[in-house]
Design goal:
- This protein is of the alpha+beta class and about 525 residues long.
- Among the domains are: about 55-195, Dipeptide-binding Protein, domain 1 (Alpha-Beta Complex); about 275-500, Roll (Dipeptide-binding Protein, domain 3).
- Helix content is about 25%, strand content about 25%.
- The chain is built from 13 helices and 22 strands.
- The strands form 6 sheets. Strands 1, 12, 13, 14, 17, 18, 19 and 20 form an 8-stranded mixed sheet that branches. A 4-stranded mixed sheet has the order 2-11-10-9, covered by helices on one side.
- α12 runs antiparallel to α13.
- The chain is globular and about 85 Å long.
- About 50% of the residues are buried.
Length: about 525
Amino acid sequence: MKKRLTVLLLLGTLVFSGCSKEDGENNNFTVSGGVEQGQVENRVLTLSMRVPETLNPLRNREETVDTILKLIYQPLIAIDETGKPAPSVAESWSISKDGLTASLQLRSDITWQNGARLTADDVAFSIETIRASEEDAVYKRVLDYVSGYSKTGQYSIDIHFRTPFSKNLAALNFPVISGAYYQGQTDPKSGVNLSPMGSGPYSMQSYSMASEMKLTANPAYVGGKPTIENISVRTTGGAETDIYAFDQGMTDILVTDAIETGRYADEGVSGVYQFTSSQYDFIGFNFKRPLFQDKSMRQAIAYALPKKAICETVYLQYAKTANTPVSPSSWLYEENVAPFEYDADMAATLLKNIGWVDKNGDGRLERDGENGQEQLHVSILANQENSARRQVATKLRDELTLLGFDVSLDIQPFEQYQEKFMNGDFDLVVGGWQMSPVTDLYSFFGSNGDLNYIGYEDEQMDALLLAANQAVGEGETLLAYSSLQKRIAEELPYISIAYRNQAMFTSNRVGGIIVPTEENIFYTINEWTFSSKKE
């Protein structure tokens, strides 16, 4: 799907952020930043984005522009705070028995901001627009899942999928645009494509190229007219500029790693609303090494990993610990699996049971092998630029050393780290993936998975992965993912660490019900208000 939903190896900066704060939690810091003195009565919410190439959401290639366009357009199907498909333009749906067709019933009361009705023709046009968009357009990956459509009525449409996949509906989280308005406008920089006209909570009032976009509340929005009437979106040059603008009170919102909470708390900046990101962190085993084909060895290392200490000292309590690769915030997460809480005694017992003992009293474990006595040596791969990965690798090294392992750290510049990981040149690896509502776990753990760099193979796992992928309907999908996660937790191809948090920081002018999600930080924008607090 869109770029940030695509399953990608975190190639550069996996920043660990913590393990216990709840999603949507407001830390309610006393605010001194985020708005200049005397601006409290200014009833304009100020946001930021990069300079857009186009304001057509289906031709756009820039993530921050997509975030802002969510205020103007509604998705065909929304994604709620648990990652579950939710009604939006489509108010209901059913899936065919073979899982290849979703029959969608659209709302009949949605109007475009020019007063025309939104119909199935617009949904069909939107799919065709995605088909004609650039390969790196935000929503181009939709076509990895959607093969076509059949209009079945003015307010109904069948969406056809390429293969049966339990997460096909999540791929329909793309904006619907007006066919009549955009018809024939193939140039992304044309006047129409720079003048967005949607059906969402806000409409564009004006746009000054590379300067400012002004939005106003849409009274015809089916979700109800937003309380905040006016929004100003300023164009910025990058993430550092966003941080500076927020620190200087030029903007009201900043989204960043929740680990920054401490910084803003110390500086007395704003309210903080945390949400679980799509960043999943893990320890991976190399199954090409006979040592790790023994499940007891993998379990021993899992018991030796001090997750709680990592959460406290590396993540600074800003993440959710995970026992499987499914997000703990997801409706599919299975809680009833083996957690492998830190237990050095259990780790030592498991090692002894498979023959690893300190025979000569040197503090190192050995066992008899085919070629004589062998010493228990492992290396841990992490990338040099990422201090959090280095910290995790160091903590694991220290614990394994206490157990009697001979451990070396293999800390590499990122390019070498990536090459070693992808080529299987490691024992243990500290890594991370960016997951999404349409993530296919077969890629990671299936015998022929294209991201299965650990070389894991298991016929039962393959069957469970395929069953989870091909499940049809909520009940069948939930059951299939439950069985799959129990197998993953038992088999331990990865030791799951956590899903880290992100946070939305708001100026002291902003209040109301603020529930940002990974898919849409403006998930509850209708219920945002201006606070009555003054500096």
